[in-house]
């Protein structure tokens, strides 16, 4: 398919479907958060030339005209990361977008291109094995040569997603058979998690996310440092806890010692706009959740100074903070 083909069409790959006209991305039939303009154009360009290397120069010429004064490398890296986040992909273990050092990018998954009438109109990797997917091929054949009404048969032998096919029944050579599209049902994926889903979150200014997220990390750092500075006070309070006092004290000291470098890393990552911070934080989240929920109980060490009511309110706020950090980063990616 030529690069200049601007006719509206659907791209199907894995469990995803992209409408090139509206820019809507769907996964298992469900709409995903919209991909921003440049990231969307990059994804379409990679899909149009699937299994081919798209150089950084090609992307620059198509998306950043010569008279545009921007940091091209930063803009391109940001757009590629937005596409990978939308597809649940990663540079280290790519399922769709492969980075070729100093060359460009390549879409490595099988792609089916479908016209507005629902008929398959082509594929960019016809009859070729895809690197990294030796058992995945796309074949096209026609039922009857010489007849414009011939139906196109396209099948995708993808072991990971065998439920998605286009079938053309040609048992009766004298009759025209409509193309039957078998797509995953919209209700195939159930949300089983109580955590915020990125699709449910509003988009907010990245600067607001940076400020709020950084303030949370600073707050934790201050808590850790004050605790370590006033360690003798904490030890005196914990003496009333009996034989568990020393164990609790050591756990809190260890938590503060681990928490300080973690918070410094997150502060640095946010200050210098590390790429992929949201993905890294989500991987750290189970560990941070345990650390922060345990630390949320420390206000009860000061119950004699601040009162039981304030200690309970502070502990409740601290219990919520790890979830708020995750939600903030997800909103910044919308």
How many β-strands, per DSSP?
Answer: 13
Low-pLDDT windows of residues: 124-192
- SSE string: EEEEHEHHEEEEEEEEHHHHHH
Strand percentage? 5-15%
Structure description:
The protein has 2 domains: 1-190, Winged helix-like DNA-binding domain superfamily/Winged helix DNA-binding domain (Arc Repressor Mutant, subunit A); 199-332, no CATH class. α4 runs antiparallel to α9 (308-332). Helix content is 43%, strand content 14%. The strands form 4 sheets. It has a 6-stranded antiparallel β-sheet, with no helix packed on it. Strands 5-7-6 form a 3-stranded antiparallel β-sheet. Strands 10-11 form a two-stranded antiparallel sheet. It has 334 residues and is of the alpha+beta class. β1 and β2 (16-19) form a beta hairpin. Residues 124-192 have low confidence and may be disordered.
Provide a brief overview of the structure.
With 334 residues, this protein is α+β, with helices and mostly antiparallel strands.
């Amino acid at each position: 398919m030529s690069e200049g083909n601007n006719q509206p069409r659907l791209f199907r790959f894995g469990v995803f479907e992209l409408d090139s006209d509206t820019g809507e991305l769907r996964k298992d039939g469900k709409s995903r958060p919209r991909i921003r303009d440049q990231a969307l154009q990059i994804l379409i360009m990679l899909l149009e030339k699937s299994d081919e290397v798209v150089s950084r120069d090609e992307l620059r010429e198509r998306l950043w005209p010569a008279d545009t004064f921007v940091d091209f490398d930063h803009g391109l890296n940001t757009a590629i990361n937005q596409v990978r986040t939308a597809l649940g992909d990663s540079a280290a273990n790519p399922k769709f977008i492969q980075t070729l050092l100093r060359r460009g990018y390549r879409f490595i998954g099988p792609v089916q291109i479908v016209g507005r009438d629902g008929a398959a109109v082509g594929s960019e990797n016809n009859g070729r094995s895809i690197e990294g997917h030796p058992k995945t091929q796309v074949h096209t054949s026609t039922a009857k040569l010489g007849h414009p009404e011939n139906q196109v048969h396209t099948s995708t032998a993808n072991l990971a997603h065998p439920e998605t096919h286009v079938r053309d029944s040609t048992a009766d050579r004298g009759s025209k058979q409509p193309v039957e599209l078998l797509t995953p049902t919209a209700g195939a994926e159930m949300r089983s998690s109580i955590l915020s889903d990125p699709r449910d979150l509003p988009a907010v200014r990245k600067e607001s996310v940076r400020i709020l997220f950084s303030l949370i990390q600073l707050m934790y750092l201050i808590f850790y440092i004050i605790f370590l500075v006033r360690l003798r006070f904490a030890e005196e309070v914990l003496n009333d806890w009996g034989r568990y006092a020393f164990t609790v004290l050591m756990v809190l000291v260890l938590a503060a010692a681990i928490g300080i470098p973690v918070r410094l890393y997150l502060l640095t990552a946010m200050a210098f706009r590390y790429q992929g911070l949201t993905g890294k934080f989500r991987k750290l989240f189970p560990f941070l959740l345990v650390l922060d929920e345990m630390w949320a109980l420390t206000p009860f060490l000061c119950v004699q100074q601040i009162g039981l009511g304030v200690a309970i309110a502070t502990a409740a706020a601290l219990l919520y903070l790890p979830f708020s950090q995750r939600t903030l980063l997800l909103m910044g990616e919308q």
